[in-house]
Amino acid sequence: MKRNYYLLFLTFQLLLSFSLIASPKDEASSISLPLGGNAWLSKNATARLKNNGISNWSAATDIITLYFRTEASGQADLSLKLRVPGGKSKISIVAPGATLHKELENQEWKVVPIGSIQIRKAGYVKLEIRGLSRTAEVYAEVSDLIVSGSALEKGASYVKDNEGNFFYWGHRGPSVHLNYTIPAAAASKTEWFYNEIIVPEGQDILGTYYMANGFSGGYFGMQSNSATERRVLFSIWSPFQTDNPKEIPDNMKVLMLKKGPDTKTGEFGNEGSGGQSYMVYPWKAGKRYAFLIRAQPNQLKKSTTYTAYFKDLEKDKWQLVASFERPQSATYLKGLHSFLECFSPQTGDQSRKAMYQNQWAIDAEGNWHEVTAANFSADNTARVNYRKDYAGGAEKDAFYLKNCGFFDDFTPMGTGLERKPSGKVHPMIDFDRLP
């Protein structure tokens, strides 16, 4: 009897071990991509993309583009969860190296096999769904792409669901950061931070924030806001945690002390709250711009005055953006960083890049310290593995950041970066003559 129990126990352990080994592969053998978080519509499309998928798809010119990333080559079997409200339709899926066709007439929601493709290397896969013919008003309503096959054996990256509003964040794509290593002699008392940005030609994508001088309490950089407007933006967070600036008590509000003649000021919310300033400025790709931020702690008032200056390096004059007083801080510059962010979900399928160079920390005694090391990081969209089109590195004497556009080569988060020293004397700034 004991022997029988022992054999039963061994059998149970064997089955348990097999299930533990097999289950990750089983889970990865099929994935379902909701179109609400993974699809993009061609410009001027008549179709509508909502959280539950594609509707109103009636124009032959509409292209529905989907992206997902695999970590292995192999076969991918493609199906669509869809229905045809009326009549018959014929659609196609254009994939790398193959075009699949399918005739449809199911009026109820159904997972319809479309065909198989070969994925030749790990990386992003781009699929285009097109309408070929229809006998009723629309081609189909589509909610999900289902992928299975050997290409998924090592996993896949895509926006899995809308928990935490990830359909929105997934369309914006991952934000990427340079977290600067300030030399020890200046780390505890950095009063000024100097940085330069060049946006390479063709990388000035609409809906991008090229942030140069970020710190604990605020950020300062330039944006591509529309086809006709660009801005230099400087914001300070209130120490009061809220997304509604109207909720901030008076003793915790960020106060505007002064501003440049072309600067507009106000409040911001939604991602924290505080004081915001910007000036409309026609910065151009391929040109170099300088950003200078100052922190003046006031121990008596327990506050810090932050002042931002901007300069087109083809001109001699620094421009004052604004100066704000932040309560409950009284600190020099901490947490110095740069970031590259897409803030427009409509342009998160387009790659963008920025070069960050000639960083200097100036301590409270006026000593200059060149900053040549940084650590690369990315936001939660990257950390949950929903998108992996993020990168950072060093090219000669400059750092760079790159994101969005579904490119294949990514930089592991936490990677340490080091640029070459500029080999030049620090920038010449007459601080006493700044506006």
List keywords for this structure.
435 residues, mainly beta, Jelly Rolls, 2 domains, nine-stranded antiparallel β-sheet, 5 helices, 30 strands, disordered N terminus
Count the domains: 2
Question: What is the radius of gyration?
Answer: 26 Å
Strand arrangement, major sheet: 19-20-17-16-15-24-13-27-30
Class based on secondary structure composition and strand pairing:
mainly beta
DSSP strand content: over 45%
Q: Can you tell me about this structure?
A:
By secondary structure, the protein is mainly beta. It folds into 2 domains: 30-158, Galactose-binding domain-like (Jelly Rolls, Sandwich), CATH 2.60.120.260; 175-433, no CATH class. The chain is 11% helix and 47% strand. It is built from 5 helices and 30 strands. The strands form 5 sheets. It has a 9-stranded antiparallel sheet with strand order 19-20-17-16-15-24-13-27-30. A hairpin with a 2-residue loop joins strand 3 (48-50) and strand 4 (53-55). The termini are far apart.
Briefly say what this structure is:
With 435 residues, this protein is mostly beta strands.
